[in-house]
Please model this.
Amino acid sequence: MAAKTLTIDGTQISAENHTSILQAAKEAGVKIPTLCHLEGVYDVGACRLCLVEVKGSNKLMPACTTRIYEGMEVTTDNERLQKYRRMTLELLFAERNHVCAVCVANGHCELQALAYELGMDHVRYDYCYPKWGVDASHRFMGMDHNRCILCQRCVRVCWHIEGAGTKNVSGRGSKSHIISDLNEPWGNSTTCTSCGKCLLACPTGALFHKGDTAGESLRDRSKLEFIVNAREKQQWTV
Amino acid sequence: MNTLLESPRNKAVARFAQLLASDKRYKILEAHIKKFQHRQDALIEVLHKAQELFGYLEDDVLRYTAAQLKLPASRVYGVATFYHFFTLKPQGEHNCVVCMGTACYVKGADKILAAVEASAHIKAGETTPDNKLSLLTARCIGACGIAPAVVYDGTVTPRQTPETALAQINQWVTP
Amino acid sequence: MTLNDLQETKAKELATRKKIVLRCCLAAGCISSDAKGVKEQLVKAVAEAGLQDEVEVRGVGCMKLCCEGPLVQADPSNALYIKVTPDNAPAIIAALKGGKVALQQADPNSPFFTKQEPIVLANCGLIDPERIESYIAADGYLALHDAIVEMEPKDVLDAMVKSGLRGRGGAGFPTGLKWGTVAKSPGARKYVICNADEGDPGAFMDRSVLESDPHAILEGMVIAGYAVGADQGYIYCRAEYPLAITRLQKAIHQAKRLGLLGAGIFESPINFNIDIRIGAGAFVCGEETALMASVEGKRGTPRPRPPFPAERGLFDCPTLINNVETFANVAPILRRGVEWFAGIGTEKSKGTKVFALAGKIQNTGLIEVPMGTPLRTIVEEMGGGAPDGGKIKAVQTGGPSGGCIPAQHLDTPVDYESLTQLGSIMGSGGMIVMDETTRMVDVARFFMEFCMDESCGKCIPCRAGTVQMHHLLVKLLAREANARDLAQLEELCDMVKNTSLCGLGQTSPNPVLSTLRFFREEYEELLQPDPHAVPQLAAKP
Model:
């Protein structure tokens, strides 16, 4: 595999051909914020937090789906990008009912962590306060649509790691939401294997283990990568 | 043995056999799916046919389609709810589609819609309680040259006003 | 089918032509005003007058002046009857014999018609779209023969490059370059897709072309397939156009029967099939990656590019996507020559553009003008200006992705670059005229609501950003917004434009940005208390 040399934030690095900017940056120790990216499943470029500037392109490029090339010059952090990222988070917080204080994921939430990290300390937009419910019909798992950011990580693990195809996005636009089977109560699902991978994948408190109280939900996401490596590469690396 | 018989798969198979035996429309849908050789990429075409046959996409139809194309139910539901053209609720006997395209809008389509909504006591997207009328809006039916246009039971009608629309609607529902 | 057969078909068709032809517009607009009844009665009246051997009553496609439909035109007298009712039939027949009759007529020598330069619409309103012989008689499928029998795929690609044709779907990407990329992309299977998902509200050019000249699209697609090495094509047509779908199906059937589509076209080893895929009501499916997802039977959500469809598209194969009007240009370019085509239009925008004129304008309908024609010529001379002595305030082009061009810029030539400079886009060709009674903030809100409803929901800026922008516009219109809200709206416009995943999201702020640019005072006025509001206390008697 040929390696490519590129510059990320002024530092010259090299990475394998066909690597994404996100991967190359990670290897070089540069952290780019993401929400929809998840190790182990393919990228969709939906959250737009990982947008970076690439010299020669007048458009911002998603680091997760953009491949590197020789001589590429990438800027992952500047005032403009930070502003856009903060606004993206603000939009998410205003979109549904994210109340950290009473959330099972409080303290273990990627959305919350990013808000701290990027200095998004208040939301300037009017909150939408949509009326979304909680599906608590499953034996030991629950789905709180109020906390969902529609990153589709649960859908992707359900389809591409577990292979069950239980979860999907239904509707469109701001009315989109995650469903099980034919928009049925999760507990009635005939396809769900109750494997719990969607719980591991969820970045917020939307998918939770029943009985967890506020702040308890800790997820070991490396399990997902572990399974994919085991299956695809026959390598069991815990 | 008993547990096998009660598996969701067997239950579904039995249900579909019953539907096929009791409802001719399923037979027609089955033939249509065969025409597409059960290809998964024909999902939207199959849903079009199903809606044409049944008037709307009820759960059994969606399940049957999923089974025939060997797709997860969530995928079929996701597609059926993505596109405006598909409806999962039964529709009224008659329908009235007010075009809300730009040309119709600048020529007063909003006033037509408001008049019909007020007269039939339903909002766009709803059906009257007596099931007589479904009121819908369209994004643009491409009839901009004769704006504002309204489609009554599939017939495009040019240059409408709140008065002409009400005259038509009131033949179907008593205001 | 051979060249000989083609010429024979043409000769036979021309030989059976009668002295007088009465052309009845049977496009969707006129049909909604009972054009079918008009045609029936004309046929009957011809029979009653015993003129069957002299007069042909021909159903044709769009005759362009949609606002005056149903339209009937007599050949060779050229009399154009407007607002025809079935009862008028005997009078029209009487007029053929020179009788003076009181029928409403339009002047076929008015600028609306004379300023047009039809290439794409050349057959529109002349041929019978439901008969392939009618298309062949107008030299149809001749270009396909020349391409397949006389030219190498490389020559066809060269011709497309040299013609300077640019995509008519909106962005104006050079067509030849796109075809070349697909041709070069390695892949055992390749696809050609015709984007007939004309979603822009206020646009009906593609519908008219599909209804009036479906074979032109098929011919363009087969030529494209030959040039890029594809053997399967799809036409993705929106469900709102049932008549277009019926006529396309008929056309495909006829072309297959004559060996102009399917296996062994013109008795060569070239195969090309075309299937129709019907959309289901999602504006975002006009975006090419979303469209391909929809053809695959999936939710029509876009995905990031690259990879571009030309490299990895439908079913992961190299795919050529062009819109209806682009394909309609292909056969005329090959038939009449690259130089002829490149001689029309401006330096960077070659050929013509079809526009759908609608809104507050005298003559609504379909026009085709050379690129570079000033907007003023289109809306004032051809369109006849605003009705009832009104004043034109702005012209909206490009639908929800475009902008409003104010009256002071009416002298702008219509080409890709000039419109972009004004913060609008060429778009697919919808042109909505607005007069003094139109409130621009309301127009911006209308388009924002459209984008909000049509957002697929995949990426956050478009899904949540359009909701917030719409909310701010509603607040403004209710006079409940302050200067900070307006600043926030502008900031959101910039953010959504630069961070959204697909074209729909990236262009959704355009109607706001362009109205802010040219009609800012209307926004600012809304920050003030309503001057017409009756003060609460004074309201009591």
Q: What stands out?
A: Chain A touches chain B at residues 164-172, 179-183, 190-191 (CB under 8 Å). Helices of chain A lie at 21-27, 79-95, 110-117, 153-162, 197-201, 222-233.
